[in-house]
Amino acid sequence: MSSTLNILNKNIAGILCCAIFFVLTSCDEDLTKINRNDDTNFPSQVINNAKIIQRDSGMIKLRATAPLIEKYEYIDSPYIVARKGINILFYDKKKPKTPGKIDAKFAKFNEKKKFYEARGNVRIITNENQMFAMQSVFWDQAKRTIYTTDTVYVTDKDGSTLIGANGMRAKDDFSEYTFFNSSGNISTQKIPEQGR
Length: 196
Description:
Low-confidence stretches: 28-32, 191-196
Number of helices: 1
Strand content: over 45%
Structural class: alpha+beta
Mean pLDDT: 80
Order of helices and strands: HEEEEEEEEEEEEEE
Number of strands: 14
Radius of gyration: 29 Å
Distance between the termini: 120 Å
């Protein structure tokens, strides 16, 4: 009888050990799944005092400086962010010695969508010396379109001003643009005389 009792106790102890093992293992798996999601929420690359030069066929296309750039690539939609501001000089083949400029307090680039956004006191100065000032701007690189719904203030090199109260849409080289609900002061030199 005592040997049957010992065998029964050993079987119960074995079953309890197996049950505890499976409970702990299933808890560990759940924690692993939770932690795996958190592990993607960190930058894979961090650059302090970044100085970036982008070239195309030997010609400099872009120079960027930023106090901090972080790259998040272990997520479904990888992106690069400059949380502490960015300054970009962009060069055009037509005027390679006169770059355009972009300044912003925050910038983000979605790599898969080829989509840029800049926020916070955004200033764009074209190589034709036109200045665009707004709080946010978006660049869809695939569609070659820049746009915003914020109020845009434009100052031309001759002092003319234009305000797009409901934003603007432009080609990314600023060769064409449309302002929504616009007003401003335009130099009389730009107004054509009748009959011409």
